[in-house]
Protein backbone atom coordinates (compact mmCIF):
# COMPACT_ATOMS: atom_id res chain seq x y z
CA UNK A 1 0.00 0.00 0.00
CA UNK A 2 1.45 3.35 -1.01
CA UNK A 3 1.38 6.07 1.66
CA UNK A 4 -1.19 8.83 1.56
CA UNK A 5 1.50 11.42 2.45
CA UNK A 6 5.15 11.55 3.45
CA UNK A 7 6.88 14.25 5.45
CA UNK A 8 10.66 14.49 5.41
CA UNK A 9 13.35 15.87 7.71
CA UNK A 10 16.87 16.49 6.39
CA UNK A 11 19.60 16.61 9.04
CA UNK A 12 22.85 18.39 8.17
CA UNK A 13 25.60 17.16 10.50
CA UNK A 14 29.32 17.90 10.49
CA UNK A 15 30.42 14.80 8.60
CA UNK A 16 27.11 13.21 7.61
CA UNK A 17 23.73 14.06 6.18
CA UNK A 18 20.60 12.10 7.03
CA UNK A 19 17.02 11.95 5.81
CA UNK A 20 14.11 10.78 7.96
CA UNK A 21 10.69 10.15 6.44
CA UNK A 22 7.36 9.68 8.20
CA UNK A 23 4.60 8.05 6.13
CA UNK A 24 0.87 8.25 6.76
CA UNK A 25 -1.61 5.72 5.38
CA UNK A 26 -5.38 5.71 4.97
CA UNK A 27 -5.49 2.69 7.27
CA UNK A 28 -2.95 1.53 9.79
CA UNK A 29 -0.29 3.26 11.84
CA UNK A 30 2.24 5.67 10.45
CA UNK A 31 5.72 4.36 9.67
CA UNK A 32 9.20 5.87 9.70
CA UNK A 33 12.30 5.25 7.62
CA UNK A 34 15.75 6.82 7.53
CA UNK A 35 18.98 6.96 5.57
CA UNK A 36 22.37 8.46 6.41
CA UNK A 37 25.47 8.99 4.33
CA UNK A 38 28.90 10.50 4.78
CA UNK A 39 29.42 13.88 3.18
CA UNK A 40 32.67 13.07 1.38
CA UNK A 41 34.07 15.71 -0.96
CA UNK A 42 30.73 17.19 -2.05
CA UNK A 43 28.22 17.85 0.71
CA UNK A 44 25.44 19.07 -1.57
CA UNK A 45 25.84 16.06 -3.85
CA UNK A 46 25.34 13.83 -0.79
CA UNK A 47 22.17 15.77 0.03
CA UNK A 48 20.95 15.38 -3.54
CA UNK A 49 21.52 11.61 -3.46
CA UNK A 50 19.44 11.28 -0.29
CA UNK A 51 16.61 13.40 -1.68
CA UNK A 52 16.59 11.39 -4.91
CA UNK A 53 16.11 8.16 -2.95
CA UNK A 54 13.45 9.53 -0.59
CA UNK A 55 10.24 7.47 -0.31
CA UNK A 56 7.42 9.17 -2.19
CA UNK A 57 3.65 9.16 -2.20
CA UNK A 58 1.35 10.33 -4.98
CA UNK A 59 1.07 13.70 -3.23
CA UNK A 60 3.06 16.34 -5.18
CA UNK A 61 5.62 18.50 -3.40
CA UNK A 62 5.83 16.73 -0.06
CA UNK A 63 7.03 18.85 2.89
CA UNK A 64 10.72 18.93 3.81
CA UNK A 65 12.17 20.46 6.98
CA UNK A 66 15.92 21.06 7.15
CA UNK A 67 17.77 21.08 10.48
CA UNK A 68 21.42 22.14 10.42
CA UNK A 69 24.30 22.25 12.86
CA UNK A 70 27.88 23.52 12.65
CA UNK A 71 29.59 24.04 10.21
CA UNK A 72 26.53 24.34 7.96
CA UNK A 73 25.48 27.28 10.09
CA UNK A 74 27.00 29.55 12.69
CA UNK A 75 25.34 30.95 15.80
CA UNK A 76 26.05 33.88 18.04
CA UNK A 77 24.36 35.93 20.73
CA UNK A 78 23.24 39.48 19.95
CA UNK A 79 23.08 41.72 23.06
CA UNK A 80 19.95 43.71 23.74
CA UNK A 81 19.84 47.20 22.25
CA UNK A 82 16.96 49.40 23.48
CA UNK A 83 17.28 51.75 20.50
CA UNK A 84 16.47 48.97 18.01
CA UNK A 85 12.80 48.58 17.18
CA UNK A 86 12.51 47.32 13.60
CA UNK A 87 13.61 43.77 12.77
CA UNK A 88 15.68 45.12 9.88
CA UNK A 89 17.69 47.20 12.36
CA UNK A 90 18.23 44.15 14.56
CA UNK A 91 19.48 42.15 11.56
CA UNK A 92 21.88 44.92 10.55
CA UNK A 93 23.21 45.09 14.13
CA UNK A 94 23.58 41.29 14.20
CA UNK A 95 25.46 41.31 10.89
CA UNK A 96 27.97 43.85 12.24
CA UNK A 97 28.55 41.82 15.40
CA UNK A 98 28.97 38.57 13.46
CA UNK A 99 31.51 40.23 11.15
CA UNK A 100 33.47 41.53 14.14
CA UNK A 101 33.53 38.01 15.59
CA UNK A 102 34.71 36.52 12.31
CA UNK A 103 31.55 34.43 11.97
CA UNK A 104 30.30 35.75 8.66
CA UNK A 105 30.04 33.66 5.54
CA UNK A 106 30.76 35.25 2.17
CA UNK A 107 27.12 36.23 1.74
CA UNK A 108 25.22 35.24 4.88
CA UNK A 109 21.51 34.92 5.51
CA UNK A 110 20.63 35.85 9.08
CA UNK A 111 17.69 34.91 11.30
CA UNK A 112 17.05 36.06 14.87
CA UNK A 113 15.19 34.09 17.52
CA UNK A 114 12.57 35.94 19.53
CA UNK A 115 13.39 36.73 23.16
CA UNK A 116 11.91 38.43 26.19
CA UNK A 117 12.12 42.21 26.54
CA UNK A 118 15.67 43.41 27.35
CA UNK A 119 17.11 39.92 26.75
CA UNK A 120 19.79 39.01 24.20
CA UNK A 121 18.78 37.20 21.01
CA UNK A 122 20.21 34.17 19.26
CA UNK A 123 21.38 34.87 15.71
CA UNK A 124 21.70 32.05 13.17
CA UNK A 125 23.75 32.52 9.98
CA UNK A 126 23.90 30.37 6.84
CA UNK A 127 25.57 30.93 3.50
CA UNK A 128 22.99 32.38 1.10
CA UNK A 129 24.14 30.30 -1.86
CA UNK A 130 23.90 27.08 0.21
CA UNK A 131 20.35 27.92 1.30
CA UNK A 132 19.31 28.65 -2.29
CA UNK A 133 21.02 25.46 -3.52
CA UNK A 134 19.25 23.34 -0.89
CA UNK A 135 15.90 24.81 -1.92
CA UNK A 136 16.68 24.32 -5.62
CA UNK A 137 17.69 20.69 -5.18
CA UNK A 138 14.59 19.98 -3.09
CA UNK A 139 12.32 21.60 -5.68
CA UNK A 140 13.93 19.50 -8.42
CA UNK A 141 12.86 16.42 -6.43
CA UNK A 142 9.36 17.85 -5.96
CA UNK A 143 9.89 18.54 -2.27
CA UNK A 144 8.69 21.76 -0.63
CA UNK A 145 11.09 23.24 1.93
CA UNK A 146 8.91 24.77 4.62
CA UNK A 147 11.53 25.27 7.31
CA UNK A 148 15.30 25.64 7.70
CA UNK A 149 16.50 26.01 11.27
CA UNK A 150 19.19 25.29 13.83
CA UNK A 151 19.19 21.74 15.19
CA UNK A 152 19.79 23.10 18.70
CA UNK A 153 16.81 25.46 18.49
CA UNK A 154 14.64 22.77 16.88
CA UNK A 155 15.31 20.20 19.61
CA UNK A 156 14.93 22.76 22.40
CA UNK A 157 11.54 23.81 21.06
CA UNK A 158 10.57 20.18 20.51
CA UNK A 159 11.20 19.46 24.21
CA UNK A 160 9.87 22.76 25.56
CA UNK A 161 7.41 20.94 27.83
CA UNK A 162 10.31 18.98 29.36
CA UNK A 163 12.95 21.71 29.47
CA UNK A 164 11.26 23.69 32.22
CA UNK A 165 14.25 24.75 34.32
CA UNK A 166 14.68 28.42 33.24
CA UNK A 167 18.45 28.63 33.82
CA UNK A 168 19.46 25.17 32.67
CA UNK A 169 21.85 24.73 29.79
CA UNK A 170 20.95 22.66 26.73
CA UNK A 171 23.53 20.17 25.42
CA UNK A 172 22.68 18.65 22.04
CA UNK A 173 24.62 15.48 21.22
CA UNK A 174 24.60 14.62 17.51
CA UNK A 175 26.63 11.96 15.65
CA UNK A 176 29.71 14.17 15.35
CA UNK A 177 28.97 17.45 17.14
CA UNK A 178 28.21 18.72 20.64
CA UNK A 179 26.27 21.99 20.68
CA UNK A 180 25.86 23.84 23.98
CA UNK A 181 23.42 26.65 24.64
CA UNK A 182 23.47 28.56 27.94
CA UNK A 183 20.18 30.13 28.98
CA UNK A 184 18.78 32.45 31.60
CA UNK A 185 15.01 32.70 32.06
CA UNK A 186 14.61 30.61 28.88
CA UNK A 187 16.59 33.16 26.79
CA UNK A 188 19.87 32.27 25.06
CA UNK A 189 22.96 33.90 26.60
CA UNK A 190 25.86 31.85 25.22
CA UNK A 191 26.34 29.22 22.54
CA UNK A 192 29.24 27.13 21.20
CA UNK A 193 29.69 23.95 19.15
CA UNK A 194 32.44 21.34 19.46
CA UNK A 195 33.39 18.47 17.14
CA UNK A 196 33.35 15.03 18.70
CA UNK A 197 31.90 11.56 18.27
CA UNK A 198 28.77 11.01 20.34
CA UNK A 199 30.15 7.87 22.02
CA UNK A 200 33.10 9.90 23.31
CA UNK A 201 30.95 12.51 25.06
CA UNK A 202 31.06 11.25 28.62
CA UNK A 203 29.33 13.25 31.40
CA UNK A 204 32.74 14.53 32.54
CA UNK A 205 33.61 15.78 29.05
CA UNK A 206 30.21 17.43 28.64
CA UNK A 207 30.67 19.24 31.95
CA UNK A 208 34.13 20.38 30.85
CA UNK A 209 32.63 21.75 27.63
CA UNK A 210 29.96 23.49 29.69
CA UNK A 211 32.64 25.27 31.74
CA UNK A 212 34.51 26.19 28.57
CA UNK A 213 31.35 27.63 26.99
CA UNK A 214 30.56 29.65 30.10
CA UNK A 215 34.09 31.09 30.24
CA UNK A 216 34.38 31.90 26.53
CA UNK A 217 30.93 33.51 26.30
CA UNK A 218 31.14 35.38 29.62
CA UNK A 219 28.07 33.58 30.97
CA UNK A 220 27.51 32.17 34.46
CA UNK A 221 28.11 28.46 34.91
CA UNK A 222 24.72 26.69 35.00
CA UNK A 223 23.72 24.55 37.97
CA UNK A 224 22.15 21.92 35.74
CA UNK A 225 21.66 21.00 32.10
CA UNK A 226 19.48 19.02 29.75
CA UNK A 227 21.26 16.50 27.54
CA UNK A 228 19.43 15.90 24.26
CA UNK A 229 20.64 13.03 22.10
CA UNK A 230 19.75 12.79 18.42
CA UNK A 231 20.08 9.31 16.96
CA UNK A 232 19.47 8.91 13.24
CA UNK A 233 16.70 6.41 12.61
CA UNK A 234 14.91 7.18 15.88
CA UNK A 235 11.93 9.41 15.24
CA UNK A 236 12.14 11.29 18.54
CA UNK A 237 15.27 12.56 20.24
CA UNK A 238 15.81 11.68 23.89
CA UNK A 239 16.23 14.23 26.67
CA UNK A 240 17.59 13.78 30.18
CA UNK A 241 18.01 16.25 33.06
CA UNK A 242 21.38 16.39 34.83
CA UNK A 243 22.26 18.36 37.96
CA UNK A 244 25.88 19.42 38.28
CA UNK A 245 27.75 18.78 41.51
CA UNK A 246 28.21 21.98 43.57
CA UNK A 247 31.94 22.15 42.80
CA UNK A 248 31.21 21.79 39.04
CA UNK A 249 28.53 24.48 39.10
CA UNK A 250 30.85 26.91 40.89
CA UNK A 251 33.91 26.20 38.72
Summarize the structure in words:
- With 251 residues, the chain is an alpha+beta fold.
- The protein has a domain at 153-250: Nucleotidyltransferase, domain 5 (2-Layer Sandwich), CATH 3.30.420.
- It contains six helices and 13 strands.
- The chain has helices spanning 43-52, 87-100, 128-140, 151-158, 203-217, 246-250; strands spanning 5-12, 16-24, 31-38, 62-68, 73-78, 108-112, 121-127, 143-150, 169-174, 177-184, 187-195, 224-229, 238-243.
- The strands form three sheets. It has a five-stranded mixed sheet with strand order 3-2-1-4-8. It has a five-stranded mixed sheet with strand order 11-10-9-12-13, sandwiched between helices. A three-stranded antiparallel sheet has the order 5-7-6.
- Helix 1 runs parallel beside helix 3 (128-140).
- The longest helix is centred in the last third of the chain and has 15 residues, at 203-217.
- 33% of the residues are buried.
- The model has no long low-confidence stretch (mean pLDDT 89).
Cα(first) to Cα(last) distance is 58 Å
Helix content: 25-40%
Backbone shape: globular
What is the C-level CATH assignment of the domain at 153-250?
Answer: Alpha Beta
Low-confidence parts, pLDDT < 50 over ≥5 residues? Answer: none
Succession of helices and strands: EEEHEEHEEHEHEEEHEEH
CATH topology-level fold name of the domain at 153-250: Nucleotidyltransferase, domain 5
What gyration radius follows from the Cα positions, in whole Å?
19 Å
Largest sheet: 5 strands, mixed
Q: Count the strands?
A: 13
CATH architectural group of the domain at 153-250? 2-Layer Sandwich
Strand content: 35-45%
Strands across the major sheet, in which order?
3-2-1-4-8
Q: Which structural class best describes the helix and strand composition?
A: alpha+beta
Number of helices: 6
Amino acid sequence: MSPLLNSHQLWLFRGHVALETTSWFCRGPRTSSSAITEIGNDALAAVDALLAAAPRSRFPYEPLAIHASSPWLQQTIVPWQPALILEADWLAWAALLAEDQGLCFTDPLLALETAHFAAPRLCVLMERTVVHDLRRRAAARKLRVWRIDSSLVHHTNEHRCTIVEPGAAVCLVEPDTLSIGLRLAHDWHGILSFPGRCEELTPALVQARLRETAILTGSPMPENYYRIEKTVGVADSSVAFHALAPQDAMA
